[in-house]
Design a protein that fits this description.
The structure is a single chain. The protein is built from 6 helices and 2 strands; from the N terminus they run E-H-H-E-H-H-H-H. It has one domain (about 5-125): Orthogonal Bundle (Arc Repressor Mutant), CATH 1.10.1220. The protein starts with a strand and ends with a helix. A two-stranded antiparallel ribbon has the order 1-2. The protein is globular, with a radius of gyration of 14 Å. It has helices spanning about 10-25, 30-40, 60-65, 70-80, 90-110, 115-125, and strands at about 5, 60. By secondary structure, the protein is mainly alpha-helical. It comes from Ohessyouella blattaphilus. It holds the Pfam family DndE.
Length: about 130
C-alpha cells in the first residue's frame, strides 16, 4: 500500500466534479484511477509542487485501488525505478500524489472530454 488515505485538493475536487458531470461516472475513485494512469503514461516527471489536500473528498487506498491495489502499487514503483527515483515510502507517496493531481489537471485542462466516449477515446490514442 502506497498511501493509507488519499485526500484531494479543492481544485482537484472541482475539476473532477465537472468531469463526473460530463462522463456520467459517479465515483471519485474511478476517475482518480483514470487520472493516475493518464499521468503515468507521460514520459516526464510531474512538477514537484505542494499539494493542498483541503477538500472533503477523501478515500482509503483500498477504495482508490480496489481489487487492483497490487497493480497500482507496482505501477508507481516501476515508474520510480524507471526514473531512477529511490522507492522509499515517502517517494512512492509523493509521486503518487503528484501523478494524481497532474492526471486530474490533464483530463480536465483541455476541455476535450465532453462525454464518456471522449474519455474512452484516450485509451485508443495510446
Amino acid at each position: 500500500m502506497i498511501i493509507k488515505q488519499i485526500k484531494l485538493s479543492s481544485q482537484a475536487k472541482e475539476k473532477l466534479s465537472r468531469l463526473k458531470g460530463k462522463t456520467g461516472i459517479k465515483n471519485w475513485n474511478v476517475l482518480c484511477r483514470w487520472a493516475l494512469c493518464f499521468s503515468l503514461r507521460e514520459d516526464t516527471v510531474p512538477t514537484d509542487i505542494p499539494i493542498n489536500s483541503d477538500s472533503n473528498v477523501e478515500m482509503s487506498w483500498y477504495t482508490f485501488a480496489g481489487e487492483y491495489s497490487e497493480l497500482y502499487d507496482a505501477l508507481i514503483k516501476q515508474w520510480c525505478i524507471n526514473k531512477e527515483i529511490e522507492t522509499t515510502e515517502d517517494n512512492l507517496s509523493k509521486y503518487f500524489k503528484l501523478h494524481l493531481e497532474r492526471g486530474i489537471s490533464y483530463l480536465t485542462g483541455t476541455n476535450f472530454i465532453k462525454s464518456l466516449d471522449d474519455l474512452l477515446g484516450l485509451v485508443m490514442e495510446a
